[in-house]
Write a structure and sequence with these properties.
With about 210 residues, the chain is mainly alpha-helical. Helices cover about 60% and strands about 0% of the residues. The chain folds into three domains: about 55 residues; about 70 residues; about 55 residues.
Length: about 210
C-alpha cells in the first residue's frame, strides 16, 4: 500500500531530505539510497523524483501470504487380520508331539554318543540321525495339518488294495531302497521283516519272480 506522504511529496517535491527518507522506506536500490544520502544535486533530485514517481505508479506487490497448513488426512485404519483357527485341542495333536519328542530325544542321545563310538557304530548312528531328521520333518508337517484341520490326513491306500501297476512299481522301488538301509542299521532291524513282506506282496501282485 502506498503511503499518502508519497503523493504529498510528489505534489510539492521541495523537501529533498523528506523524499530521500521516503525512498529509503519504499525503494529497493542501495545504489540510489547512497546517491540520495550524499546530498542534493540537480541530478540526484531528478533521479529521486523519477524513482518516487515509479514507486507511486508501480507499487511493490504485497508480501505473499504464508500458505495455509496442509490438513493431514488421518492414517487409514488397517483392516483386521483374518483370524486363523488352530485346533490346539485336537486329540491327534498330543500323539504327534509325543512322537516328535521321542525322536528328538533319541537324536540328542546319538549326538552325545558319537565321539565315544567306534567307527562302525558311529557310521550307523550317523545314518540313524539322518533318518530321524526325515521323520521329524514328516511329523512337523503332520503337526501343521492337525493344527489347521483338527485331525490327521487320510492315510495312504493299503498295499493290498493297490491295483495300479505303476504305483506298485514305485512302491517296490522305494521298499527295496529302504530294505538296503535297514540291513545296515542294527537298531532298525525290527522293521526289516515287514518291509520284506511288503516286497514279496508287490512281487506277487506283479506276477514277477525275478528278485530285485
Amino acid at each position: 500500500m502506498i503511503p499518502p506522504e508519497l503523493f504529498a511529496w510528489l505534489a510539492q517535491p521541495a523537501d529533498f531530505a523528506a523524499g530521500a527518507a521516503l525512498y529509503a522506506q519504499l525503494g529497493g536500490s542501495p545504489v540510489y539510497q547512497q546517491l540520495f544520502a550524499a546530498g542534493t544535486t540537480g541530478y540526484s533530485r531528478q533521479v529521486l523524483r523519477r524513482e518516487l514517481q515509479a514507486l507511486a505508479s508501480n507499487p511493490a506487490p504485497p508480501a505473499p501470504m504464508a500458505p495455509a497448513p496442509a490438513v493431514s488426512k488421518p492414517a487409514p485404519v488397517p483392516a483386521p487380520a483374518a483370524q486363523v483357527t488352530t485346533h490346539v485341542d485336537a486329540p491327534d495333536l498330543p500323539v504327534v508331539r509325543a512322537q516328535l519328542r521321542a525322536l528328538r530325544d533319541e537324536r540328542s542321545q546319538l549326538h552325545a554318543q558319537l565321539t565315544a563310538l567306534g567307527r562302525k557304530a558311529r557310521g550307523a548312528a550317523a545314518l540313524r540321525i539322518l533318518d530321524i531328521g526325515d521323520e521329524v520333518t514328516r511329523l512337523l508337517k503332520l503337526e501343521d495339518h492337525v493344527l489347521a484341520h483338527g485331525q490327521l490326513p487320510a492315510g495312504p491306500v493299503a498295499l493290498a488294495d493297490i491295483t495300479d501297476e505303476g504305483e506298485l512299481r514305485r512302491r517296490l522301488s522305494n521298499l527295496v531302497a529302504l530294505r538296503a538301509k535297514l540291513r545296515k542299521n542294527e537298531k532298525r532291524a525290527g522293521e526289516l521283516p515287514g518291509v520284506e513282506a511288503d516286497i514279496d506282496l508287490i512281487r506277487t501282485k506283479l506276477n514277477r519272480t525275478t528278485r530285485v
